[in-house]
Amino acid sequence: MPENLSENICQEAAFERIYNKYSDDVHNFLYYKYGAQFNPRDKAQEAFIKLWDNCKKVTFAKAKSFLFTVANNMMLNDIKHQKVVLKHKKTKPKHFTNETPEFVLEQDQYLEKYNKVLASLKEEQRVAFLMNKVEGKKQSEIAEFLGVTQKVVEYRIYSAFNVLKKELENFKLK
Length: 174
Prior knowledge:
Elements: H1 12-34, H2 40-53, H3 63-90, H4 101-120, H5 123-133, H6 139-146, H7 150-167
Helix pairs in contact: 1-2, 1-3, 2-3, 5-7, 6-7
């Protein structure tokens, strides 16, 4: 035993003494508290690895407390992880939607018709409309980008909207 309990344990001989003294105790503590399914021998070894990694910070007097605390925390983390895994296994992936096949078909047909009407618009109308409604650009930004006045952009969006409203039933925009 070292004469000074505040001596650091980075020396191999001091660390070996700690290992020989506490390894079985740490293992038994974990085994009795958590059982064999969480590999208490491995957790005890990992605790000693952490002790070695932190040997400059942990004194001889604090080594036992450090080992038991680290080993217990590792075991708790492992249990917590297992709970998450089990919870994830219990949730079944959703392979269905609440929409009826008729709704899905109508939606596809509507989208197809919308794309045809959009393609039939004049290019100026389509560009102004899509920049405003899809990209979310303001009319002043579109006017600056296209090199026209804001009134021209407003008219193009308005006329595109009227064509879409006329060609598509129930066409509404937010």
